[in-house]
Amino acid sequence: MERGLLLERGPVDGGVEKEEWMELLSGHHVGRAEMNKLIMNYLVTEGFKESAEKFRLESGIQPSIDLNELDDRIKIREEIQNGNIESAITMVNNLHPELLDNDRYLYFHLQQQHLIELIRDGRVEAALDYAQTHLAERGEENPSILSELERTLALLAFEEPEKSPFGDLLLLCQRQKVASELNAAILETDATPKLANLLKLLLWSQEELDKKKIRYPRMTDIATGTIEAPK
Amino acid sequence: MLFASMEIDDQGGWFDTLHSDEPEKWQDALLWLKNSVIGNNKQKQNAINHGIIPRLLQWLVDGDAPQHLRLEAAIIMGSMAKGTAENINTLVEEGCVSVLLKGLKSPDQAFVESCLRCLRTIFLHNSNCGSLIYQEPSIVEDLVEIMPRSVCTQECVANILASSCKEPEHQSKLCECGLIPKLVDLLAGKVYKVQMPVLKCLAGIVRENGENCVVALTAMHNNVPLPDMLVQLMLRDRTSEMQIVAAKVLAYLCGGGALAPQDPRIISKTLPCLIRMCSRDRTLEENVEGAETLAYLLEQDGELQRVAAVSDHIIKTLAEYLKYTDVQQINRCGKRIDINWGIEMKQAAFKAFAALGANEESIRKQVIETEHLMEYVVVGLNSGNMKVAAAAIRCLHSLSRSVQLLRTTIQDHGVWKPLMKIIQEGPEELLPVASSTLCNLLLEFSPSKECILDCGAISVLVNLAARPEPNLRLNGIWGLMNLTFQVEQKVKTKVVESIGTERLFRLLSDPDANIVMKTLGLLRNLLSNKLHIDHIMGMYGNQIMQAVVFILEGEHPIQVKEQTLCILANVADGDKAKDLIMGNEDMLKKLMNYMQYQPDVSLQIAAVACISNLIWSGEDGACARQAKLSEMGVQTLLQKLLSTTDTVLFEKVRTAVQQFS
């Protein structure tokens, strides 16, 4: 990576105008090979096996791991995204028998998701039973999860739980959240794709500049890369 | 799904199946069991209550049982070990460890790894297992051989061995098996979760073991010696936990004599790292471990102490430790541990202060003058917690080497009572340091000697002087010596009465020359001050003279004889006591001999001083004494000695000659 931007030392409240900014940006070149590595890293971390395979053929970048190892993680993620939590747990226990013993908080989130699925199916009694049998123990071990548990159980109090204040738990992106958490645990290392880390760094830098009240062109939309002139 | 809607009552069915004679159903039952217990402590206990451990052991022991069943059994056992401390105790009590160790001989890699995982978990959380791998000679060799095979075996074996090297015999055995070079290779492998237990293992294997330190010092990977590798692992971009263990290994290498304290890897890398760990922005765990390791390192060398004392306001930082009072709960894998941070922080700080102030007075001054520090030390002495009291004593001992700086503390804060209490009621291992502290503090002859005596110091010291251990005897008699310096007659009498002349004279024939010296020192102190001399010689004159003869006629180092002659000189100062010497021809002849003693002039000086006191003009009977000694040839002898080149002797001789009127 090239060195960071070299700003001229003008007065702090002078700030930078958009034109100058864009000029400075265009003076920096990020190599294609580096870009490709970032993309491959993203695909492997998130478990997009077919895409990773195709990308390998097209770009010539070698993935950091054997792509067949992705199969297990992909299957587990699919089970969760389909709401088959217990099946996912069984798979995890077969492949990584120590994982859920070591990370009880993760286990709680998986069990909580199963509870949510029971509630979604309207199986109230089964849900209560499950909560009593399995989740009470989580609360004893780790009192800080009690509030999360309460919110989940509160869904049972509503005729139409998806319209309740905790309805967001029933959204399908909640499954996605749990799947990502589990994926990260399986990968053990920092499972955030490096691309995501870069974007976080960008956002953090903007925040720091804002704190010091410096005028500069901000990136307002990460997805499109839109940069707006300072006001 | 197997257990989705399973009621608790149905569980009994699965347990029955496991105990039954229906092998075709066992696989399903084990699968159910595995999914039931993973992550669930209640289910683990439930399984134990249903007698699952012996059943699993049956499969594990049976080498002919189907491999897939044995594997599941090992995995389930591993999950049980992730339960509560009681679960682990049950596993150990039921003999799981030896079964699992035997399992390591299996050719099935997956099975071996599952056994290792379970063993690793047990060893990490149960401190009683440390010696189990040494029960059969081949176990350790097998472990070392298996270790390099995979990341799993590396991590597990390193953890198991790290938990098993507390005793020197264990350390030696591990080194003999060639463990150290293998560990060094793994350290270079850059797999974090392997590096950490490897570091802990290295720390355990070199601690206080000079031979292992030498092996570790020269171990290399790709021509990079281990100490250099460790320096890399102490860099700031590493995690704190890695920095601190790497620093520990280097500190132990220094303590074991393999690395000099002046080695830049120690003084410029390890020392600053440990000081960093003490700072406020670290966790309490790191603070405690950092301070304790720092204390260990600083004890090795005065230069390290000097550098540390000016590093990063360390004294102030450590003083902050003393203010902690919390008890915190730590959750690890469903196990709750209560740690009293107040106690841990205090004892770590006291240890560090003790080491910092070990050699340099200027550092001790800084420590003593730190606000409220001495108050905390006294509170620590009074603490009911032995860990804190022991550390506080060590701190006070170190600081007591500059006892004059402690004058206010002794007066204001009352260290005597808690100190006596520790000596009289505390554990044996604290006696040497506590009694040394007492000796040092007694040097300070402030008015508060009253309260020392009130606390029963004399009997405490007399008891120590009667102990079989030479270091304790020494402290006892040394303390009495310090106590009697320039003290009132009634105290001197009390001392002699308490210790008794028999014990006193037995100490004069002690095999330890230091003890003899201090006993003589005590006698000298007792016999200082004209009035006291006559009083004491009046009561014990014969025994004292006998003792003097005994030493002068025996084989003793020069210093001992010199001290004895000084005592004789003191006796010669007493108005009535003089007669005891004058009436003893043999003694007078001895004195004349010592006046001519070569080559060591100190004996001559002492002898002349004695003669000088005997003939001191202006005192009753001086003329008669002078005549008698002159007749024996003393005056002539003195005249001859005037030609000495030694200035001190010359002065003494001249003074003596002047007495002859």
UniProtKB/TrEMBL annotation, chain A:
- Which InterPro entries does the entry link to? CRA_dom (IPR013144), CTLH/CRA (IPR024964), CTLH_C (IPR006595), LisH (IPR006594), Ubq-SigPath_Reg (IPR050618)
CTLH domain residues: 69-126
Top-rank taxon: Eukaryota
Q: Which PROSITE patterns match?
A: CTLH (PS50897), LISH (PS50896)
Q: Which PANTHER family match?
A: RAN BINDING PROTEIN 9-RELATED
Indicate what this protein is called per its UniProt record: CTLH domain-containing protein
Source organism of this protein record: Dreissena polymorpha
